[in-house]
Each structure stands twice: as structure tokens, then as C-alpha cells.
Amino acid sequence: MVLHLGTNFALLLLVVSSSTLAVFGQRSAPQPEWNNREFAPAPDTSSPRDDSIDQSYRLPTDTVPTHYTIRLHTDLHTGSRAFSGIVDIDFDVIVPTDAIVVHNRDLLIASAALYAKDQDGLLVEFGFPHHEFDQRTEQLTFHPGQVLPIGSYVLTVEYSGLLQTSSNSGFFLKSYVNDDGERRYVGTTQFESTNARMAFPCYDEPLLKAGFTLWITHIAEYNAVSNMPVEEVVPSEEHEGYVTTKFGPTPKMSSYLLAFGVSDFVALEDGNQQLYARPNAMDEAEFGLEAGVKILDALSEYTYVNYYDYMPKLSQMAIPDRGGGAMENWGLVKYAETGLLFDPARNTYRTRKGIAVVVAHELAHQWFGDLVGPQWWSYIWLNEGFANLYGYIGADLAYPSERYWDLYAVENVQNAFGPDATDSTRPMTQDATTPSAISGLFDSIAYDKSGSVLNMFRMVLGDDNFRAGLKVYLLNRQLDGAVADDLYAGLQAAIDDKDVLPDGYTVKQLMDSWTTEPGYPVLTVRRNYNDGSAILSQERFYADKRSPNANVWYIPYSFASASSPDFEDLSDFQWLSTKAERIETGASADEWIIFNKQQTGYYRVNYDAHNWLMIANALREDPSVIHRFNRAQLINDAFNLARAGRHDLALTLDLLRYLSNEHEYAPWAAANGVLNYFYNKLRGTANYHDFIVYVDALIGPVFDSLGDIATVPEDETLLDKYLKQLISTWACRVGYTECLRQTAEALHTAVETNTPVHPDVSYVVYCYGLKGATDDEYRWLFDQMINSNNEAERQLLIDALGCAQDQSQLISLLTVAIGSNSELNSLLNGERSRIVSSIYSSGRFGVEAMIEALSDPLLAQEFVGRFGQGTLNNVVSNVASRTNNDGELEQLEQFLAALGDLISPETAAAAVRTVKTNAAWFETYEGVLSTTYFSDFTN
Q1: CA torsion, ordered 374, 376, 380, 383, to nearest 10 deg
Q2: What is the pLDDT of residue 47?
Q3: How far apart are CA 142 and CA 131, in angstroms?
Q4: I want to staple 800 with a disulfide (CB 3.0 to 4.6 A). Which of 13, 247, 493, 766 is the partner?
């Protein structure tokens, strides 16, 4: 590959090469989040099988596994992908059969032998079955040549395979560079949802649980870790310099929960917990281990089910270059490094919060998914919904002073509302059988919506009752699979005779209305100001239309009013169980009413215009009279109701004007989405100035109260940090002189003293400090990134580098991402892609730099060679979505012409359609109304 390097890139390389000895081969850097769970076997009347879905992907139910003994051999320390294995599958025949059907993906089967167990448990040779493989269903069928009677058997299969390097699935290979500049390899696993079959032939369905005994043979200088503790490490009899690590048998569990790792990692320990990481990152392991200990103890106490009653230890492992995600394997949780490793000198409050919540999410799975798992992927929400919810509750229990719970609604409830307001959304309970369709179930519905719905019922039933019900559920279904009815039964048992629900209502009846239907309702409150009554009505909320829907949700509601503004009391709920109902509110005509206290319910609320006006007036007079969670709810609801044609957009924009006196983060987080929407529509147009005047009126007083945005006071709280970053980002974005002065000055001082700024303000300082930065300052920041050994820091610095407003600096950065120079080998593939997105995401300067660079046919060709066609298509799409005026459209058209055959006509046409849609918005009712509002506001 030949790269045409600009002078700035050459300068960057000088900086890189000056530290290359420390950087090249240093270690690849990592990232966070989560991934996760489920099951299925014998005739199951309660598992919803959709006849329209191809059920041939499901295994037959005439044999079931009881135990696996797996012996693996790997030479991964050399970078070799090849591995070999022998698996003994103990299984029972429960219906006489002439076929044993298991799963396999990409494993080469060498031989198979079948044994029957006699009454004394002794093995009797039963022949050597031949096998056939169905590529479509990934089913591997062994034919013993006769019908096997009911009984117990062992199938021994010898096989080989390759570690994955292009995906983080199955048994896959990663690497890092140690402090001596040597590349070291890490073999690790990700079996959920259907990837255990990539490491050994198995019954790869969640309900087909079994015990697992694992032996791994590997080079002696490496070590192995798995779900269970090591029982012994013995020298290999067949391979000199190798050892075999033998692990104890696991409890009965799903195949996707088996996990192992082979590496030269070391461990930090605290009691029965260990955190494994590469040796040159152990100084970043303390917080992740501390969080693991605190959260596991808190969740054991919360669920009344002690983790250590089932598992003897809990290990956490930080995988370099994993990209993102985490996996809750029972007893061995795997994370991207950014999800587990924290350096207070380099990482931000957001990284720390992310680790606390992700650790709590994965540890919640030790109960919800590991101890009890869904019978089939249809019920993935029994895993992910609980983990989503208890990620925040667990983190909040372990670190109450951080107020993590304040973030739940704005990061989850409101996040779920978007995708769940479309025609294409699915219900929480949804069947799927193909691997790709099963993977597709791990979506916002499984995580955000399901967690939100579970939280709604936690609040309705009361947390103490909910906990008691979860205990019943967990103990009744321990080491087995569950369906939704099992959860309902546990919760019902906890509230029977407690007068929690109205007579005639059951948990199943109420929850089914939320779990079996797609979408969610809008509760409309229309008041009669003469008699104090109100008519409540419900219908399904769509983001872009009004459409009849027959579903009736059982909606729990509570409300506060001006004369009774008690938002803290969540002990009393009423139920709307019909399409509409008239209620008495007890509120006088001159006081506001707000429903859905603290936004505990998973639904939107709309009011008549007069009630909205009274709410807006109350917020302007004293925001604190309305709970901060409801202030966030009101902003999010009002904007989305207006966009759906259910509310007046002018009233929404009026409502937001109280924000000049808002100092809590949650409402501002909701408002941030509204302001970003209009920013993206209006930037670069004649209406932009008016919008900026409006933004200034909202953020100005709050920004003035922040003081020095480039320093971090000792007593600054987590939510203060969130608010400061949000407000200062807007202040700098819209051109506040003081914001830009402080960030430029802080960056200049950092460069002069070669001392990075405090991590908690680093993004804003670096991103906006780069406006007008010299090449030397830009190279200094680039050098900070390329020399960092901490992946979370590297990600933040990449995002900041994309903020530059000098086209040559950005083009130089892009050529770094494309380049294959040995000096840049410390860049991970994910980091290269992140550089690309950081450039076009940070503003129009980046978009134009991208256009300029990729209009060079040679560079565009090299870009496709590095990233593939899909990434170029994505760039074109993102450039189009950020094209807002005639001049920018002309640039886009020239860009498309320059790319020529590198993109398809369909991609080019889609880009032009996007721009036309952007332009057409100004002639829509919403466009005319909002631009008129901002104009009137300015004048």
C-alpha cells in the first residue's frame, strides 16, 4: 500500500518515531460494555414457538447432555490459530433414537466413539458412529447404526479447529505488547449466544444444561483460567515445556456460559475474587476488583441468595483489544479492558461509572442467566432486563454517594422509548431460531425496555416484595431454565395476602400486557377544571404517526399536584385497565398535576394545553418543586409528543426555557437530546443564529455558575461532573469566548509543561482547545494518544483529535488511520475505525476534511483496502446527514463524483435523498414552527 503523506503527517510520524521504541509493540489498547444469554429441550408447552419461524434449527429432544469432559491443546503462545480437542459428551437417551444430534461450527471432526454406561457406571464400547453435517442448521449428526435404547451413554469426539482472529466469538485470539516490546498472545472465549459450538461439539441450546470438566494443555510459561478453580497443573506427557491445567467440574449450566482463557496474565486477589489482566496493566486493576467484591456482596444480600453457595470463586478478566462488551460466564466474567481497568490519573469519571455499572450488570447475571436462565432465547429479557436494571441498582448499592440511580431513566427508559416507538419493534418475548436471528434479540428491547418494565413492577409491588419474589423465583428454578410464568409465579407468591394489587388482578395478567405486545402507551390526561376530575386514556405511541391499536396495557399510575407535591411517596398506585376512564384528582383548577412520579412507569404522559402551561410556569418559578426525574421526563415527553403531532412544539420550547435555572444533570441530559436535534437540523443554515440565541438563553446562567471549567474541585460530585461537561460542551460549541479561552489556555499549558489536564475535564479541554491549535500542540496530543498504554484514555484522545479545525491536521490524522507503517502498529483495528468516525462526527470541519482527503482516488482506494466497502459507504452516509445547505450539497456531489465506482449508485442516490430530506424539513409543519419560534424568540 502506498500512502501519499502530507507534511503534517510526516511531522506526526517524527513525533511517533521519537517514541517508537516505547510505543511499537507496546500493547494494543481495549474497550467496555456487555453481551449475554439463554435455553431449550424436551417438549415445552410454555416456550412460545412461532410456527412462522423455521424450527428445524432446534435440536431434537430425544437425547440430553449431562456432562462434558473437554481436553484442549493450544500453541497460541506462538500466535498459532490451530487447536485440537477431545470431548467426552455424557448424555441420556430419553426417547429411543438412531441419531445423536449436536451442534458444530467450523470444527473438523477426526473420529468418534460411542460407549454405553452399564448399571455400575462402567463404559461398554458401542461402536464408532459415522457422522454427517448440515451446514445450514450447524447440526452434526452421529449415526450409531442401530436404535439406542433409553439409557446413559458417552460420545467421545476428536476434532480440531482454528482460533478466531476476525471476530470476538467462539475461541478467539488477541495479543498485546509487554514492557520488553514482545508481543504476547491471549486466547479467550465468547460463547454467547451460539458460539460454544466453535470450540467443541455440544448441545448448544440454553436449556440443555450440563456440568463441564475442562483440561487445557498449553506452554508452561502461560497459565489458564476457567469458570472453576484450578485443581492441578501437571507437566504434559506428550509435549516438552507444556503443562496441562485441570479445572474442577462446574455446576449444571448452559454451554454458552463455559469460559476459559490462556495467557501470561497475573491476578490481583481479594478473598475469593481475582482480577486477571496483562502484567503491565496491574496498576489499573484495583477499582475493578473492589467493585467486584462490593457489588457481589450487595447483590447476594439483595437477592437473599448467596453467590458462594453455588460457586467457589469469582474471577474477572480484562481482555486487550476486545473492542467492547463483556460476558457474564459463571465464575469467570470477561471484559474489554475499558470495562474493567481504571487509572485515576488517566481515566475519567465516565470510565469509572461505566466500570461500576458494567461490573454490576455482569455480576447480576450470576443470578439472572447463570443460576437461572431462560428456557429459550425467546425469554432473553429474563437475563438482560434484570442485568440492565441491577447494573444500576448494584452499582448504587455499592457506591451510594455517587447517585448512579439518577442516570437510569435518562440512559435506559428514555433510550428505549426511541426504537420501541416504531412499527418494526418487537415484543419483549419473541421467538428466534437461527444464530443471526438469535443475536438480533440482544437489542434495546432486551436490555433497556425490559429493565425499565421490570423496574416499573419493582416499584408497583414494592422493592421488599420484589426481592422476596425474586428469591422464590431463583430458588424454584435454580440450575434450570425458566419462562416468564416462573417469574410471575415467584412475584405472585411474595404478594399473596398483602393487598398490593387490586382484587382480581394477578402479576401474570399485568405483566403479560407489557411483555407480549410490542411498543408502549401514551397516557393522556384531560382535566375538567370545573369539577376536579380527569379523563385518562391510553393508546400506543408511535414516533411519527397516530394509528389505532387494540392492545390495552395495564398502566400503573400515580400523580402529584401543586398542593400535594410529594414525588417521593411511591407506595400507592392506581391502574388504568381499559382504553379510558374518568377519575377524581382532588386538584383545584389553578394547580398543575404531574403523572408517573419519578418516571417509574414505562410510558409517556400527555396533558391538555392548560396543564402543560401551568407546569411550565411552575418550573420557571421554582424547578425544585417538581422532582428532578420528572423534570427530565417532562422535557423528553413534551418534545417527542410534539414531534409525533400530539403536543404543541412551541409549548415544548417554552417549557425548556426554565433550564436557565436548572442545575441537576438528569433534566439537562433530556434537554441535550432536544438541543442536538435542532443543532443538527439548523447548523449551516440561515436559521442557525436564532437557534444559538435560544441556546445561549438556556445555558448562559448555568455556564456562568460553573467557574473554571478546566479544573476539578476536590468536592465535585459525579453528577456535577456530568453537568459541567454537558454545559461546557454546548458553551464551546456555540462559541462562548470564555469557554474557548479557558480550553485553549488549558491545552497550551498542558503542552508547555508536558502535563496532561485532569482526566475529568480532558475531553472538553482537548476537543475545544484544538480550535486554532498549532501543529506542535496537535502533535503533542497525538503523541499522548499513541504513547498511552490505557485503552480508555486512547479512545478519548482519538475523539478529541477529531475535533481539530485545521483541515491539514485532520487529513494527517486520517492518513494515520489508513496507514500500515510499522511505527503505527500500536493502533488497534477498532482505534483506526474510531479515528474515522471521530473526524466526521465532530463538526463540519471534519466532514470537509474527509471530503478533501477521500476525493484523492489513491487515498480513497487505500481507505477501502484498509476498512472495506461498508466503512466508505458509512462515511458517505454520515457526510450526507451533515449536509445542510446548497454549498455543502455541491461539495457532496463533487465528493460522490470523485469516488466514482468506489461506491454503488444506490449509496450515492441514498446520500442525495438524505440531503433532500434534510432540506424538505424546513417546509414541514415542524420545521416552519420551530424556525418561526426561534426567530420570534430572537426578535
Answers
A1: 20
A2: 55
A3: 4
A4: 766
Hey, what's the cell of 354? 461505566
From residue 331, how far is each of 123, 203, 390, 770 by CA, in Å? 31, 21, 18, 45
CA 463 to chain centroid = 26
Look up residue 448 and give its DSSP letter: I
The gap from C-alpha 437 to its chain's centroid, in whole angstroms, comes to 18
Which candidate, 616, 608, 603, places its Cα nearest to that of 554?
603
- H helices present in 309-446, as ranges: 349-364, 381-398, 408, 414-417, 435-440
Phi, psi (deg, nearest 5) at residue 590 = -100, 15
Q: Is the pLDDT of residue 34 over 60?
A: no
Q: Is-contact 836 811, C-beta < 8 A?
A: no
Res 38: pLDDT: 27
Please confirm whether the linkage preceding 193 is cis (ω < 30° from 0): yes
Q: What are the tens digits of pLDDT across the range 249-261?
A: 999 999 999 999 9
User: Helix, strand or coil for residue 826?
Assistant: coil
- Residue 177 CB: number of other CB atoms within 10 A? 21
DSSP class of residue 411 equals I
Phi/psi region, residue 127 (left: phi>0; alpha: psi -120 to 50; beta: rest), is left
Instruction: Give φ, ψ of 7 to 5 degrees.
Output: -65, -35
Please state, as a whole number, how many other Cβ atoms lie within 10 Å of the Cβ of residue 135: 8
Between 46 and 194, whose confidence is greater? 194
- Rg of the chain over Cα atoms, rounded to whole angstroms, equals 29
Q: Can you tell me whether residue 105 is helix, strand or coil?
A: coil
The overall average pLDDT reported for the chain is: 93
6 has pLDDT over 70: no
Could you give the C-alpha distances from 368 to 293, 316, 379, 772, 780, in angstroms and in order?
A: 18, 18, 12, 51, 47
Residue numbers annotated as active site = 362
Q: Give one word for 691, left, alpha or beta, with left for phi > 0 and alpha for psi -120 to 50.
A: alpha
Return all residues near 493 (Cβ < 8 A) that are at least 6 apart: 469, 472
* Cell output for 551: 392492545
pLDDT surpasses 80 at 39: no
Q: CB neighbours (10 Å) of residue 115? A: 18
| Residues 488-543 pLDDT 10s | 999 999 999 999 999 999 999 999 999 999 999 999 999 999 999 999 999 999 99
**Rounded Cα distance, 115 and 124, in Å:** 5
The confidence band for 22, taking pLDDT boundaries of 50, 70 and 90, is: very low
End-to-end CA distance of the chain: 57
- The predicted-structure confidence for 537-567, as pLDDT tens digits, reads as follows 999 999 998 888 899 999 999 999 999 999 9
Report the half-sphere exposure of 67 (CA within 13 A, side-chain side). Answer: 11
Residue 155 has pLDDT above 60, yes or no: yes
What is the DSSP annotation of 857-869? HHHHHHHHHHH-H
Tell me the pLDDT band of 49, cut-offs 50, 70 and 90.
confident
**pLDDT at res. 323:** 87
